[in-house]
Amino acid sequence: MPHHASFLSDGAVPLVDDHTWNDLDMDAVCARIDRTVSIPGRMALRRMLRSAVPSTGALTERDALIGALAPARETARALRSELTRLDRTAGAEDLASLLWEHPPEGLPHGWTYRLLALLAIVSVVLALSVGGKAVFVPMLVFALNTAVHFRIRVRWQMEIQALRFVGRLRFCAHRVVSILEPLLDQHQRRLSTALHDTASVARRVTLLSTGDIRGILYEYVNIFFLLELQAYQWLVRHWSGAAPGLREIFLTIGELDALASVGQWRADSPTWCRPDLEPGPVHLQITDGVHPLLVDPVPSSLSLDGRGCLVTGANMSGKSTLLRTLGINTLFAQTVFTCTARQYRASPLGIISSMRVGDDILAGRSRYLAEAERLLALVQKADSGEPTLCLIDELLSGTNAVERLAASRAILDYLADRGLLVVAATHDRELTQSLRDRYESYFFADDFSRDDLRFDYRLRPGVVTTRNAIRLLERLGYPKEIIARAREDQR
Prior knowledge:
The protein is an alpha/beta fold.
């Protein structure tokens, strides 16, 4: 489904940038937690997860709405019944495009459609008053207008389909306004105002053909008098006045669907909690936090009081999953007031990451250059002074060990000096030793004692003491000469 970037950012302050969103696999996370029943709702859920909520008070109000729309509540059932109708109607994505990206364009030679409609009226009057061969005139006009109608419809099908959705959207808004729920009062007042402001649009939208076989009689009338094309032309002329109200209806209906979706997700989740967001010094504490994409996750607990941490461990041991678990729950806490953990306590935090960085042959960018550019974004974020959770997976892995260690120490020191809460995964144990006064150390263990690599995915304080890279090569069947040479060089 298209994301419609303008819709996602319209009037909202993003909590994460695109790189961080992708690092956290948020597209997949959205798909996993999505319980919406309409396209406006699906789009609103993405918008909600990307947008910062201005205060803890606003988050508390959002939590109350989610509770009011919990699946066991009658309000939720009534709302879901109305919203489900929208998903059976084509045009929602196209309408979003018209509202936020590309307004509908006028038809070429607009005056000709009014002239042809007038010709149709004259032909009917002529046939009824004169009779004889004049009865064939309406048939000729109908043939002409049919050709014009379908020629235009093929080119403007998307716009016409989108405008048809306006009628269904407004009908849904009318029904939602009638739902009795005090906590929905603010949303219902917004809908009532927007419905009033778009009433004239609604009258023209009814002239657009539904394409339904049940409306076959109207279809003939529509084609003969070119009602649809004339209605479309009127809507284009008045679009700038109608668009704000239609955006309000689209956003409000979508938001209600998204909030109900979060309520359903809570009901479906074995582990979740409401976060404790506490203003003050930068800190983060998560107890039994899990990644929402994992089916049978091993929970992790971490407490950071102003100091970041360095996480060591073998590949596949759980380091990157921990970073994403922290980032996703920090995002969840400040957007949908729901964390996949037994407890989450933290100060309000921005989120920025450097996890998935690779070379780009077409752009002529090496892996090291790409990493350096991304880390510069983190440094610039530190200079802004905003309290931020900074997630880094393997600093500067695209260059040699000597320079990597020197540059990594300098960058991590800089970030810590400016108050960022940094959680970085690394294979460099030397880095943890040189920064032990600035960063806590945690590790994930592995077990290769039975000639088979095993992980328990449990986070422990300290630094990993084992290495398994060469043993893993041996386990995969590398030639003995390679294994022996590697072990010799290692010593």
